[in-house]
Structures are given as C-alpha cells and as structure tokens.
Amino acid sequence: MTTRGVRGAISVENNREEEILTATRLLLERMVAANQMDSEDIACVYFTATSDLDAVYPARAAREMGWAHVPLMCAQEMNVPASLPRCIRVLILWNTHLPQGQVKHIYLGEATRLRPDLVEQ
Fold first, then answer.
1. pTM (2 d.p.)
2. How many CA atoms lie within 13 A of 82 on its CB side?
3. Residue 86 is a catalytic residue
4. CATH second-level architecture of 2-118?
5. Which of 25, 30, 60, 115 is catalytic?
C-alpha cells in the first residue's frame, strides 16, 4: 500500500458549533464514500478552519463518527486577503492501492471555487 493524500473542503454560513460539525461530517462522509475508505486504513486526518470559525474543533465530527483510533489534528488556515471565508479544509492521509490519479477529492458548497478542476458535475 501507498499513503495518498485525499483533499476536501466545505464552507459554512455561520460560526455555529452544530453547523460546523454537520458540514464536517457531510464532507468526511462524501470523501469516504467516493474513495470507499475504511477508517482502519486512514493514517491521520488534518483539519484547518479559517480564523472566522472557532465555535468547535472540526475534528470532533470525526470522533462522533467513531474514528476513535485515527490521529486527528486541527489548525487555523492561513489568513490570506480575499480568501474564502468560513471554510473547513481536510487532508486525509490514507493507505491504499489506488494510483494517485484515481483518488477522488471532494469540494462542497462555496469551497468548489477552491478547486473547480476537481469538482465532479
């Protein structure tokens, strides 16, 4: 197996705990489904959130999904002028036999602007 990076991002409307957790869960579920991941094969997950999101750690959504043994880390996204606000980004490091070109990255909501080349129509 090789460790591959799987990227994803989602935006939220408000800095509210339940909204952040719901959006993060949705993003993780879509990433897992699109790539047919088993949490046993996930090496770790790195979450970032823009500075306007501080109501809850996005990683809590993964814990609530049962990812008890997956190492999780949260950080603040760089504050770049004119960047997408209220955005949660995820990088899953995943052990898989898939070649790099077959890994599916998921961008939802306003975050589709980040990588329109990877958004499936």
1. 0.95
2. 0
3. no
4. 2-Layer Sandwich (3.30)
5. 115
87 is catalytic: no
- Quick one: average pLDDT of 87-107? 96
Please report, for the chain, how many H helices and E strands are present, in that order. Answer: 2, 5
Q: Which tokens belong to 21?
A: 């957790």
Does residue 48 contact residue 75 with C-beta atoms inside 8 Å?
Answer: yes
Compute the average pLDDT of residues 80-95: 96
Specify whether 16 is catalytic.
no
Whose tokens are 């957790």? That residue is 21
Q: What pLDDT score does 121 carry? A: 53
Q: Are 47 and 72 in contact (CB under 8 A)?
A: yes
> In whole angstroms, what separates CA 38 from the centre of its chain?
16
Give the total residue count for the chain: 121
Q: Where are the domains of the chain?
A: 2-118
Catalytic one of 4, 86, 87, 89: 89
Residues 6+ apart with CB under 8 A from 54: 15
